[in-house]
Design goal:
By secondary structure, this protein is an alpha+beta fold. It has 17 helices and 21 strands. The chain folds into two domains: 243 residues, 4-Layer Sandwich (Glutamine Phosphoribosylpyrophosphate, subunit 1, domain 1), CATH 3.60.20.10; 252 residues, 3-Layer(aba) Sandwich (Rossmann fold), CATH 3.40.50.
C-alpha cells in the first residue's frame, strides 16, 4: 500500500504535489518522492522518511514545472532500507518516463526474466515498481510509430502491460513532453481517482480525500483496467484496456487503510466503518450480555466509527480511553516487528479513569499479528480494568496478502491455524469477538451510494483465502466463477443498511 498523485497544470505543481502527499501520508511513511517536468526535463527529489522530512525549502525550489507525480512509500516488495528504491522511478527510453506505483506484482520473477532475455532491459533494484516501469516502457516502444505520440498508441501499450502483469497496480506516469498516464489493474484492487480544479488543472490520486483537500473536485474513479491520458493541454483521453475487467476492490482499504473522509468506487469509507460496527454489535451480543459491558472504547484511529456504532447498537456508553501521540506513525505499516511493537506504548497511553474497575469492550479495526493487541490489553489491565473484552471490526486475518499489504507470511498472522480461543489466550483478553466474513462484505457493499460502479465482489484474500487474480492466470474470463454466490448478498447489501 502506497499513496500516489499526479498533477498537470498551467502553473508550478511542486507545492500542490507536496500538499497531496501530506494528505496521503497515512498510506506510507517509509519514503517519499516527487518528480516534476519543466519543458522536457525531469527534476527529482526522493528519499527515505516522511513528506515533511524529505522536502525542505531548497528541495521544493529545485522542482520546477507544471507537470509532476509523487508517491509516499510503504514497502511490500524490495528492500525497505534501500534509498534508491524510493519512488518515482525513471527510464530514459522511449521519450523519458517516470512512474509511481501502488500495489504489488505477483509474477515478478517471470517478468524479470522476460525483460532480460526478450526485452533486453536492465533492472537495477529489487523493486517490483522498477519492473513495472520497464514493462510499460517496452510496450510503449513497441506501439509507437514516430511522433507525435497519440493516445491510441498509449492505450495499446497499456493493453500489452495488462497482458503481462499479474497482481495489483494503480499507476501514474509522466511521458516527457507529452503528458500524464494513469491506469488501474483489471480487478481494481488498489484505488485511483481523477479530479479537476476550477481553472482546468487535473489531478489523479489514490484517494478522493487528497483531491478535495487540494481544492479539486472529484470527477470519478478510474475503472478497473482503464487507462487515462492527460495531454499537455489538460485534455482527458480514456480507454478500457483490459480484456475482461471486473471490480474487486481491496476490502482492507475500507477496514483500515483509507482515510474515513474518502470515497472509493462509490463506497464511503466512513459509512462502511459505521456499518461494520452495526454488524459487529450483533456478534458481540451473541457472546457477551450487554449488562456485562460497562463501556465501549475504540483503539484509535480507524476503529472509532465502528466502535461508536457498536456502542449505540448495544446501548452502552462510548468513551475515549486512549490518547494517541499523532507524531508516531501507524504501527501496522511500520517496517520491522521490533519497531512496530516498541512503538505501541509510544503511540498510545491510557486514561485510567475510563478503565479503573470497569468491564471494558475494546474495539479495533482488525487484528493482524496480535502483538499490538496484546500490548493494548495489558495497558487496559494496568489502568485498572476489571475485565477486558476485545472485538475486531474485521474477521480473523488467516492468510497472507499478496496485493500490497504487509502480510507476507502465514507465520506472522496470529489467527493462522489458531482457533479464536487460542488467539484470545495469546492476546490475554477475557473474550474475543471477530466480525463474520460475509457480514463484513455486506457491510462495506452497503455503504456504496446509488449509481456507483458495479461491484463484482471484494478482494478479501487475507480473510477468506480467495485470490482474485488466480482466475485471470487460469484463463478465465472473469473471477465470478470463483466467487459464486456473492451476487446475492451484493444485491441486498444496500437495503440491509438503508
Amino acid at each position: 500500500m502506497c499513496g500516489i498523485a499526479a498533477i498537470i497544470s498551467e502553473q508550478a505543481v511542486n507545492q500542490a504535489l507536496y500538499d497531496a502527499l501530506l494528505l496521503l501520508q497515512h498510506r506510507g511513511q517509509d519514503a517519499a518522492g516527487i518528480v516534476t517536468q519543466d519543458g522536457t526535463k525531469f527534476f527529482m527529489q526522493k528519499a527515505k522518511g516522511m513528506v515533511r522530512d524529505v522536502f525542505r525549502t531548497r528541495n521544493m525550489r529545485a522542482l520546477p514545472g507544471n507537470v509532476g507525480i509523487g508517491q509516499v512509500r510503504y514497502p511490500t516488495a524490495g528492500n525497505a532500507e534501500a534509498e534508491e528504491e524510493a519512488q518515482p522511478f525513471y527510464v530514459n527510453a522511449p521519450f523519458g518516463i517516470v512512474l509511481a506505483h501502488n500495489g504489488n506484482l505477483t509474477n515478478v520473477p517471470e517478468l524479470q526474466q522476460q525483460l532480460f532475455e526478450l526485452d533486453h532491459r536492465h533492472i537495477n533494484t529489487s523493486s517490483d515498481s522498477e519492473v513495472l516501469l520497464n514493462v510499460v516502457a517496452h510496450e510503449l516502444e513497441q506501439t509507437t510509430r514516430g511522433l507525435p505520440l497519440k493516445p491510441a498508441d498509449i492505450f495499446e501499450a497499456v493493453r500489452g502491460v495488462h497482458r503481462r502483469l499479474e497482481g495489483s497496480y494503480a499507476v501514474v506516469a509522466m511521458i516527457a513532453g507529452h503528458g500524464v498516464l494513469a491506469f488501474r489493474d483489471p480487478f481494481g484492487i488498489r484505488p485511483l481517482c481523477i479530479g479537476k480544479a476550477a481553472n482546468g488543472d487535473v489531478m489523479v490520486t489514490s484517494e478522493s480525500a487528497a483531491l478535495v483537500g487540494s481544492g479539486f473536485t472529484f470527477l470519478r474513479d478510474v475503472a478497473p483496467g482503464e487507462a487515462v491520458f492527460i495531454d499537455n493541454q489538460r485534455r482527458l483521453h480514456s480507454a478500457q484496456c483490459a480484456r475482461a475487467p471486473a471490480l474487486f476492490p481491496c476490502i482492507f482499504e475500507f477496514v483500515y487503510l483509507a482515510r474515513p473522509d474518502s470515497t472509493i468506487d462509490g463506497i464511503s469509507v466512513y459509512q462502511a466503518r459505521l456499518n461494520l460496527g452495526e454488524t459487529l454489535a450483533k456478534r458481540v451480543l451473541t457472546e457477551i450480555p450487554p449488562d456485562e459491558i460497562d463501556v465501549v472504547i475504540p483503539i484509535p484511529e480507524s476503529s472509532r466509527p465502528s466502535a461508536m456504532q457498536l456502542a449505540q447498537a448495544i446501548g452502552r456508553p462510548y468513551r475515549e480511553g486512549f490518547v494517541k501521540n499523532r507524531y508516531v506513525g501507524r504501527t501496522f505499516i511500520m517496517p520491522g516487528q521490533a519497531v512496530r511493537k516498541k512503538s505501541v506504548r509510544q503511540k498510545l497511553s491510557a486514561i485510567k479513569a475510563e478503565f479503573k474497575g470497569r468491564r471494558v469492550l475494546l474495539v479495533d479495526d482488525s487484528i493482524v499479528r496480535g502483538t499490538t493487541s496484546q500490548e493494548i490489553v495489558l495497558m487496559a489491565r494496568e489502568a485498572g480494568a476489571a475485565k477486558v473484552y476485545l472485538a475486531s471490526a474485521a474477521p480473523a486475518v488467516r492468510f497472507p496478502n499478496v496485493y500490497g499489504i504487509d502480510m507476507p507470511t502465514r507465520t506472522e498472522l496470529i489467527a493462522h491455524e489458531r482457533s479464536t480461543a487460542q488467539v484470545r489466550e495469546f492476546i490475554g483478553c477475557d473474550a474475543l469477538i471477530y466480525q463474520d466474513v460475509n457480514a463484513m462484505k455486506r457491510a462495506v457493499a452497503g455503504a456504496q451510494a446509488l449509481g456507483g460502479p458495479t461491484l463484482h465482489g471484494f478482494e478479501a484474500s487475507c480473510f477468506d483465502g480467495v485470490y482474485v487474480t488466480e482466475e485471470a492466470s487460469d484463463g478465465e474470463s472473469a473471477p465470478s466463477t470463483r466467487h459464486a454466490g456473492e451476487s446475492s448478498w451484493m444485491d441486498t447489501a444496500r437495503s440491509e443498511f438503508a
